[in-house]
Amino acid sequence: MPPSVMPTSSKGESHPPPTAVSAVGLRKSYGEKIVLDGIDLRIPAGSVFALLGPNGAGKTTAVKILSTLVTADAGDLHVGGHDLAAAPQAVRAVIGVTGQFSAVDGLITGEENMLLMADLHHLPKQEGRRVAAELLERFDLVEAARKPASTYSGGMKRRLDLAMTLVGNPRIIFLDEPTTGLDPRSRHTMWGIIRGLVSSGVTVFLTTQYLEEADELADRIAVLHDGRIAAEGTAEELKRLVPGGRIRLRFTDPVAYRSAAEALREVTRDDEALSLTIPSDGSQRELRSVLDRLDSAGIEADELTVHTPDLDDVFFALTGPANVPHQPEETVR
Fold first, then answer.
1. What CA–CA distance (Å, rounded) separates 317 from 279?
2. How many domains does the chain have?
3. Taking 80 as the threshold, does the pLDDT of residue 15 lie above it?
4. Looking at the domain assignment, is residue 131 inside a domain?
5. Are 241 and 316 in contact (CB under 8 A)?
């Protein structure tokens, strides 16, 4: 992987960013089933880290351990500068957790949910009301604040859930599949909220099955498979791990198809579909080279499709077949 760019001091010395979450040799088993088999993680403060993996890979278990809800079998674990085993209360004081299932109480109003969280954080009554009002406004929930939370849409409940998590002003937030079940508009709204949190200095540990979500939000991504980290890096670094870039040309004229096959090198032919597939890194230079060769031979394709490896390809390659929707190729006609 390419070297990271690190900030330098006035003396020219490089310093890595402070670490918000670190795990070395994290292990957890339930009976004979090994869920986490010695994983290592380092998450810089003020960044978004995404943990990807199929159902049952151990993502939620990792979140539960790092947020003090479950005890690890082994591992040197630090969150917010505190040793997880020695100082769990200190860890709880600096984190917030939003799980897969909403913590919202549907029998009371959104405002009452917020005030309940303020009481749990032992905020003085006046301070609790101020914090609740600010967060309800920030998350666009003022109009619904005095309505029962059971009447909220899925997106509103998720926003309220996250607002409740922020009552204690945590610097590290664990979001366990925060947009599961949301419609695309609500999902994009939640992404904007997460970006806003990070821009204010909050560290976000995100688990998700939505590859687009990890690609959009995460500074670094780890793929968890069979209890181990199969790969970790930026989205671009992970995409470079997987071969499979290609240019596909389709023709309606059999003569043009055969002429193109002769003019181009290293092509895979599909005589029935009249299509040619050429390995490609997706660069503009390589695409131009293919088009120049066709132009030189006086050939014009009816359809040109470019595909470069994406996180779908990474996910399939590292975890095997999974029920992940594949992104369409980009087509130029």
1. 18
2. 2
3. no
4. no
5. no
